[in-house]
Amino acid sequence: MLSHLRMSADECFDEFQNLLRNVWGQPRLFNLRARRFWPRDKYDYRILMRELKDLVKRKSRNGNQDETFRQQNEDRCRCIVTSLLWDSGRGTQVLYLFRSYHHPTIPTNDLLLKLNQRNPDHPKQYTIWEVVRAATAATTYFAPMNLGKGTEANEYIDAGFGAYNPSLEAYYSVRGVSGKAPQMVVSVGSGANRRLRPPKYVDKAHLELRELESKKELNYYARLNVEEGIGDMKLDEWRGKYGTDTLTQIHAKTSDYLRSDSVKQSIVETARILVETRRARAFDPDSDHWERFCHGVEYVCTVIDCTDKGKTHRNRRDLRCHLEGVHHVPSSEIETVLDRGKRFPLYDVNSKAE
After folding, report:
1. Distance from the Cα of residue 259 to its chain's centroid
2. Which segments of the chain does DSSP mark as H helices, in order?
3. Minimal CB count within 10 Å: which of 25, 82, 201, 256?
């Protein structure tokens, strides 16, 4: 929702609550987890599918419920979603990463990096709602998600047991594509479960990321995870009318956690580093990449007699070369012409028909 649909955090929170009410609030009376046993999952996956399609349709720029998870502009904010894939050849489940971008196979002597490349290739043409369905198909709660056809057909389920904390997967993905460690990793958890032991198994990724930070293979790492009252909740906990008791508890425990001095300090430090990084990019000679990454900015030539009219230029530098080399625009006018050719397709309502 944050990456693909460009929704704010508040919008995500509201939509998630609506999704919970419309799906978690409608369990089947007879199911695998009920006293009235019946061999079927607790929730009807068709209701979840309907709600996801409606959300994508309402929030996507094109109003298309089948918008693809693969992003057209791979310079934009990228997204990874984890799931477990049934590998019939091995007779087991393997961790699978749905990526919104191309992740090439990287030749490397780094054994850890090689082991954590995870299905490198161009992303499949799956829709946003299909990927979310695959990633939320928790066993006995929702039916598995079948994607692909013929020899590429596969079954996917929730990756809760394979990647409880997917932060480490994100770390190795970034490192694999860029060739260097990410500057920072901020991991936001869904609550610490004190009933599960041993803790190293529960949050192995957290421990490894802390170790990477101590070895200077990661500049900064922060983990935000409510310590009490949320992680112990069952996946299908839904107390009170419309789930109000459950939602109130989540809100209260999260607020208590955020009032902690150590958590406040961590958030302030994280914000400081993010702001400093953003300011540094503003003065970077390659800052063209940042505006394309953050806002999807594109450039077009607006010179009336241009034979390449309509062609999209990757960044400001590319258009500048075109204007100087083809149209010989004088330096006194070039900044004005560049500004005139700047486009924001992500926010331009007139481009919805693209």
Report:
1. 27
2. 9-19, 45-59, 111-115, 128-135, 167-178, 199-202, 204-214, 244-258, 261-282, 288-295, 316-326, 331-340
3. 201
